[in-house]
Amino acid sequence: MELLPRSPGEFGSARYWDRFFRQRGQRPFEWYGAFPELCPVLHKYVRPRDKVLVVGCGNSELSEQMYDVGMCQDIVNIDISAAVIRQMQERSTSTRPRMSYLLMDMLHMDFPDAHFQVVLDKGTLDALLTDEEEATLAKVDQMFAEISRVLQVGGRYLCVSLAQAHVLKKAVEYFSQEGWVVRVHQVASSGDKQQFVLPVFVYVMTKFRKIPGSAPQILEICPEEQDKPVRVESAEGLVAAVKDRQHYALVCSQISKTPCREQVSLDLCDKESRKPRYTLHVVDSPSVKPSRDNHFAIFIIPQGRETEWLFGTEEGRRQLAASASFGRLVTVALHREQHYEGMAGIQAELSGKVMELAPLGLPARQQVPFLSVGGDIGVRTVRHCDTSALSGEYVVEDVKGEGSCYFRRLIFLRNRNVVQSEARLLAPTPLQGQKKRRKDKKKPSPAEPPGAIDKSYLCCEHHKAMVAGLCLLGGPDALPGELAVLVVGLGGGSLPLFVHDYFSQACVAVVEIDPSMLEVATHWFGFSQDDRMRVHVSDGLDYVAELAAGAPAQYDAIMFDVDSKDLTVGMSCPPPAFVEKSFLQKVKTILKPEGVFVLNLVCRDTQLKESVLATLRDVFPLLYTRRIEGEVNEILFCQPGPECQRGPAELGARARALEAALRQPGRPWDSSYALADMLQAVQIL
């Protein structure tokens, strides 16, 4: 039986609808949205004494159900299909005497002006506005003009719609320009996962007298999980907000039916600010054999640990899901701008929402466990936030790591999942703790992190590898004597600080383009300058070029640890200009013959990476590489001549000798500084 039109234009044809309803018979046809789902929204805007007009009524049961439950009984239904009007008159005349059905075209209505308090449209606008051709838009304008004419001031036009972008945009722009208040409700779904149903929306357009001049538009959206409307600035913003909810519904439908081949990422936003509050990743483990108790679980990532490999990468989350032995694991990252009331509060807030992401086959009334590390949500304290003209918005925050360790981190918010700099915080000595308690006269909070920076500790694995590269320097002594080091890229200053403190005769020059970062390093990361450590606020490209134009061969070691501000390039460290051949030749010019140039390379673009390596080989005859396990970082050690080459045995011996020399009495040394291990995985390119 052919019930669909041959072309979208037939949706506006009386002949098509007559044929449709004759073929369909007495069975009610609901475009979308059953009465139980629509009732909570309709109840807010339809009063028992209202006179209601239903345009394009078809043989939907909506009017009958509104009548029967007493929501409203003075209802007039119109349609262009004579066949359906006859059906509905036969069905309701004797049982619903106050409700009428009239054969009428909504584009040319016979009702007097301001005759109704409510006009209800369920799918009619969607059926009419099938395209954006001039003729179609003219019909829609006529429809809106007639609805506006028959509505009283203060009356409501309720339009039930699937909210295709062009439909919603047309309605919002038309009525907001007329001075009406426009509010969009998302209708709560029935929860039936067996058949995907696009989310249904109700546009509520409330008529006001048009004010001469440019009155401000009032546009609002009410998501299904809340009653309080949220103000939206523009029609485009309202369309985008609806589109987000449609995308979420589509994702939920897809993953409820089939396992995720790729990890799905979703943001859940705060109801008030509309800023992201939770970031969810849905991870399926096909290898896990499902049982009643291991279908589905939620894992709350402790605050501040979302950047760790296990939680911040696809491979890490896959390993986490497999080790947790759940068929589907949803990881939840918490955002720094938000406040959370502990694990119980998060569970109460998320329990309903995450069930929309449950896999097919989850047993009914199955309790879904909420998991975390140590059973808590971690500690994050924002110490400082500001905006740099060069680096954009940034924050300095203290976070709790494993055990009782705390770390201070610098985060650029343009790339909020990457830790720009990190330092370990020292735990206070018992005496310091006693003095603080005497001064404050109160016990310190267990969540309050210590404040002093542990300058002896390198948090970043790539920094440890860069330090290990100093083993490549020539000379008979394991610990070089006078050492001239150039570091381009300051960050929090941990790398130059370590070289300065552990290589007691090293003179370190640091180049940093952003003066804000020097302030951050000084005030928040314990960085300081002296006669062996100087910072030059300058562009590293210009600084090196000026040095190369003067006296050559000035540095024993040159280290590049500088991030790119351009996120569109597949290389986040360094900026592309730093690995151009002409600039690398200048770097070689200021490097001593037996020196080492150490470069932190972070490049996800395979072709671009191969190009960079080829350029480096053209300039530096000897090139070693050290990949950092679990990270994208790759440390490149470049030397000016092949005579500098050392075999694995010699490198290991020099690394062990250097480590022994650096382990001096009274100086802290972390067991993770295994310089020989760092160089074991070095490859010659």
Automatic annotation (TrEMBL):
It comes from the Eukaryota. SUPFAM superfamilies: S-adenosyl-L-methionine-dependent methyltransferases (SSF53335). GO terms for cellular component: cytoplasm. Residues 434-444 have a biased composition (Basic residues). The keyword Methyltransferase applies. InterPro entries: Lys/N-term_MeTrsfase_sf, Methyltranfer_dom, SAM-dependent_MTases_sf. Keywords: Methyltransferase, Multifunctional enzyme, Transferase. The keyword Transferase applies. CDD domains: AdoMet_MTases. GO terms for molecular function: methyltransferase activity. Residues 429-450 are annotated as: Disordered. GO terms for biological process: methylation. Residues 50-171 form the Methyltransferase domain. Belongs to the methyltransferase superfamily. PANTHER family: EEF1A LYSINE AND N-TERMINAL METHYLTRANSFERASE, SAM-DEPENDENT METHYLTRANSFERASE SUPERFAMILY PROTEIN. This is eEF1A lysine and N-terminal methyltransferase. It comes from Orthonyx spaldingii (Chowchilla). The gene is Mettl13.
